[in-house]
Amino acid sequence: MESSSNCGENESVGGGESKWKSVVLCLLLLFGGVMLVTLFSDPMCDVLTALTNSKNASYLPLPLFYVSFIVTPFCSNASELVSSLIFASKKTRENSTMTYSQIFGAATMNNTLCMSVFMALVYFKQLQWIYGAEVVCILAVQWIVGLVSLSTNTYRMWLAVPVAVTYAFCLFLVWILEFKAGWH
Question: What is the phi/psi pair of residue 73, to 5°?
């Protein structure tokens, strides 16, 4: 009994030191993550651009938007994908709900942050606006997924279907708006 109270006392005394160690470790990990993103983001953009360049031998005859819309999310969100698969593999209601919540949160944050940065770049650099169809489709998907996520507190497996369909719907809607309606 006495050893357990002793352990509690040692934790409270050494708590400040371990807190600083945690802060330093967090800062180092954040700095390391920023360095990795800085190191790999430009080559990733070069790869995506090369895939859609007609002068390249391994050319894909697709617009850059479609390649980046399909490939980039899987590359940039690999950590969320892996942790979601680990949660989902436990097959409990709480873990399934955690998986959906994590995916919805990551998608919302990524789309919101990326859209904000993109719009700020267009505005401050006074770039030509040719992205109307893409922005409308991304916002439509955000609203659809948001409404699906608000429909319940516990996510059921069948909810994955409408969410997955929005991905294909977005690609199809961009194609319709750009190539059939001529809207840019």
Answer: -60, -35
Contact 183, 129 (CB under 8 A): no
Q: Report pLDDT digits (tens) over 78-130.
A: 777 787 778 778 877 777 777 777 777 777 777 788 788 888 989 999 988 88
Residue 87 near residue 101, CB atoms below 8 Å: no
The count of structural domains within the chain is 2
Joined together, the tokens standing for residue 164 give 């997955």
CA distance 31 to 147: 36
110 within 8 A of 77, measured Cβ to Cβ: yes
Residue with tokens 């509690």: 8
37 and 124, same domain (yes or no): no
> 10-33, pLDDT tens digit by residue?
444 555 678 889 999 989 988 888
Place of tokens 């940039």: 76
- 32 and 1 within one domain: yes
Give 126-156 as a 3 state SS string.
CCCCCCHHHHHHHHHHHHHHHHHHHCCCCCC
Same domain, 127 and 38: no
- pTM for the complete prediction? 0.58
